[in-house]
Amino acid sequence: MGTPHILDISNEKDMRTLITPSTPVDLEDRASVKVSCMQLVQALYTLIQKNHAKPAGLSAIQLGIPQQMFALHSHIKGKPVCLVFVNPELRIIGNDVADDWAGCFSIDFLRVRVPRPTKIRITANIFKVDGTTCASLGRQAWHMTDADALIVQHEVDHLKGVVTLDYVPATELRAFIATKGLWQDPQGHSVFNVPQAYRQQGRKTKMINEPLAQDQLDTLSSFLRLTWCRIPRPAFDPRRFFSNDVDYYL
User: Fold this and answer.
1) Which class would CATH give 12-166?
2) Contact 160/250 with Cβ under 8 angstroms?
3) Which residue spans within 43-118 are E strands per DSSP?
4) Residue 151's Cα: distance from chain center in Å?
5) What is the pLDDT of residue 210?
6) Greater model confidence, 109 or 139
7) SS3 (DSSP) at 55
8) Which residue of 39, 57, 85, 117 shows the fewest CB atoms closer than 10 Å?
9) How far apart are CA 88 and CA 85, in angstroms?
10) DSSP bridge partners of 199
């Protein structure tokens, strides 16, 4: 298939869709659920091939489908698999947090530093897609850690209308805009960085994140000032979720 149309946050219409919470999926409409699952997985595979991103996830809202479902491509018991999680509920397990640069197919021009718990339990109606088949595995609870846990939380955020830009405090955004991207925190960290070309390292292809060039900083500052900062957003404190055994979803 050709390159799927992924909603782009730099487009104001797409952005307004991306920040709108999704609605639960009607599981009684089995034919529609199967079509959406297949569409999600096909789009994700195309993006993986294009971006060399493994593991990776994609939410339905990024395709303009406002339903609570997302696809995850990862390795389960050493084998590659693509699963679709429908009507998910998420629980944080433990207090371990990873603070890393997060990317997004809908904000592919930058990375945002996002802190996330590294251990979760997700309960959802799970569908396994393999080629042209889509099999229901029923509603299950899965424990996930590390990269898979971070990706799942990112996708669940999408279903709530939350994007990575929401993790940047307003004060930092204003400082970034005022200094045209030159602002850094006391530890010398910038608010954003940009994904550069993938580079071969031994047998692995790795994404290298580097500071934004000046023209990229100018474009990003204009987008933030003229579009993003003009859209009312709720006060957002991601660390409110970082206590032991706390359910969070919608």
Assistant:
1) alpha beta
2) yes
3) 56-59, 69-76, 79-92, 97-102, 111-117
4) 6
5) 57
6) 139
7) coil
8) 39
9) 6
10) 206
The model carries a pTM of: 0.81
Instruction: Give domain limits for the chain.
Output: 12-166, 170-229
Task: Look at 99-103, 137-141, 213-217, 245-249 and tell me which has the smallest mean pLDDT.
Answer: 245-249
Instruction: Give the other-Cβ count within 10 Å of 21's Cβ.
Output: 13
Alpha helices in 57-159 (DSSP H): 146-159
Contact 111, 102 (CB under 8 A): yes
In whole angstroms, what is the distance from residue 148 CA to residue 122 CA? 11
User: How far, in Å, CA of 40 to CA of 137, rounded?
Assistant: 17
* HSE-CB of 145 using CA atoms within 13 angstroms: 3
Average pLDDT of the residues in 20-33: 93
CB 89 within 8 A of CB 45: no
Q: How far is Cα 2 from Cα 14, in angstroms, rounded to an integer?
A: 20
pLDDT in tens, 147-180: 899 999 999 999 999 888 888 777 777 777 777 6
The vertex-155 CA angle with 161 and 106, nearest 5°, equals 70
Beta-bridged to residue 10, according to DSSP, are none
Residues in the chain: 250
